[in-house]
Amino acid sequence: MANALTQTTQAIALPPTLGEKRVTLHGLTWDGYLQIVHALPQSRAARLTYDQGTLEITMPLEDHEFALRLIERFIIILIVELGMKIKTMGSTTMNRADLNRGSEPDCAYYIQHQPQVAGRNVDFATDPPPDLVVEVDITHTDIDKNRFYASLGVPEFWRYDGREWRIYQLQAGEYLEQSHSPTFNWVEKDDLYRFLEQAQQDEVEAELALRDWARKKGLGVKTES
Description:
tt1808, chain A; 225 residues; 5-stranded antiparallel sheet; 6 helices; alpha+beta; 6-stranded mixed sheet
């Protein structure tokens, strides 16, 4: 089996796509936001982000979901092959009444703090925020996601716009863009791009290649138990 991860590539060159449909409401109170959250069914595709009076309702489309599920698979494979631990939060609602902000991120994960929240429900009012949050924003969003998740204290934030993977690390209350993930500091951006590119043709082949590559790379990587 040819290992596509041994090749060199750059950010995927794709034509513009419509990744999401969005509706934005302004001047909405916290109580009004909560009423909308409680009125909507839990099993829904739409995701809500509330930022101090502005509510953005996002309906992911195929390109969004395809990229998101593969990025999540990328993360899980790295975690498994390196023998790390993880608690996956998915798009669990992260409400912070004290900050007048609430979010249903595309994906959120406890990795470094997994032992602290393992085996129980997370209380965002008292527990630390997820160690890693991932957002796919292919189309324009009216919410400043960097400022938003920095205010929640999320240590690491990934953004993917359908072409480029941006990695941010929280430092002194603000995000600084990094060339490597603080969690997976031996992973290059090209490694994700290659995985996504191959998965467009064959997801099974892409996963097998990634697992093989991660297993070999992981032999020289020390991880905390």
